[in-house]
Fold this sequence. Notes:
- The protein is 21% helix and 36% strand.
- It is of the alpha+beta class.
- 37% of the residues are buried.
- The model is unreliable at 1-18 (pLDDT under 50).
Amino acid sequence: MAALGGCQLLDRSGDGGGGSVADDGRTYELTAPATVLGGAYKKVDSIGGVAVRSSELKGMRSLGVAHPEAVTAMYLAGKGSGQRSISYSGVHGDVEDPEKVVDALFAEMERKVAESDGAATYVGSPEEFTPAGFKNGIMKCQTSEFRTSGPNPAAGEDGGERRTYRNPMCVWGDHSTVGYVSPTHAAAAARGDSPSLAATAKLTAELRADVRVTTE
């Protein structure tokens, strides 16, 4: 099954969530505008996002997302070693239990990584965040860790020693939308640095405000 912005979607119901996420009574859709975060990031059509297949939308329906429609995009800022990117994808529809969907997506990512070749793991457990401006939703974030080998020019290396990269991600859910956000900074990643989960949660809340629009 193809990934929705890195998340493998379930074709079965997941556990968790209590339906306690506040609902403001409005309905929303997700968009992929040309620029986000004050114009600092621009959408790259040539890279785009990962195509969402009908089987994945079926998986969202099984989790309680009625009439899901998908949106996915890649955004870039800066150039060269200072370039930063944001991978964003999600669905909008009628979300019965947002926390259940968020928990199920993390559980499925964990399951798929456990079945992989061991090059990737997840650090700890998903943590809940409520950054400024984030209302009527649930957001959880976690760090993924990738191990690779080969030269690392950014760190002044030309050998093939094994290295570790960490990449944060956040998933939000509300009664109309579910979104996945993962930022990267090429040079920082090469040095072994990565944004904190709190910083990623703040960025995710800001991106949500840019891409989520009311239908009323």
